[in-house]
Write the structure tokens for this entry.
Amino acid sequence: MRNLNIPDEVYMHPGNMSCPGCGGGIAMNLVLKALDEQTILVIPACCWAIIAGPHPQNSLKVPVLHTAFETAAVTAAGVRAGLDVKGDSETTVVAWAGDGGTFDIGLQSLSGTAERGDDIIFICYDNEAYMNTGIQRSSATPAGGWTTTTPASALKPQKKKNIMNIMAAHGVPYAATASISDPQDLAAKLQKAMTIKGTRFIHLYASCPTGWRHAPELSIDVARMAVQSRVFPLYEIIDGETWHISPMPEKTPIAAYLKAQGRFKALNPERTAAFQCSVDNEWENLLKKSQAA
């Protein structure tokens, strides 16, 4: 086990293509600090396909393999198999995808990888829309969320897909939620994931100032409010059956979280109340699962 204090080493070059305040950029920085340079990243189409840049101008100090939108998990599994043939059991292989490449377009690849138990870490940095191609809605977009394809006149009515329940149903040995607002929790979960064999899944909350319509300097604050309000609770699932809630701050209403983001400004009181009710119900369900463990 490595020291869980966040190291000073940075595995990203300055001057990359991320937007100011990019939660995805913060997420990558924290993840690589926890994993260190003996890591290979497989990145499908997403914001990070642009941020990382083409060889040899890669903005990361670790090897990166770009792949098709739908194939992050299976490509990472192939890299792992190749390393195994070479006798390299020390390098960590990470599939790094956005919510589009995880919840939607990449779900079939992820499902197959999880069913086979391929020995990779899959990290979804979740900014709740297809941000790289113009802020279109994904199945990770929350109900009532504005995007360019769900404008104020037609806000998304469906709830966010519960990707953690899907991974639990696959019985993966380790799945966890994490947030850029809680770097020590994220590091600890990555450290634990590295000690486990098989498909490990990290659902990482990464705020997006551009798509969520909040000031760049509020990225960490918005992420923290998501945890506090239980919009994005922190927890672990072991072998698809045992649920553990991570240390959490005192629960707060969702009002401040919604108010901080322009993407929710069209929510009326009825939709806001429905949002709060949904969050409360999901939290109660999580509590029951944790208590039953």
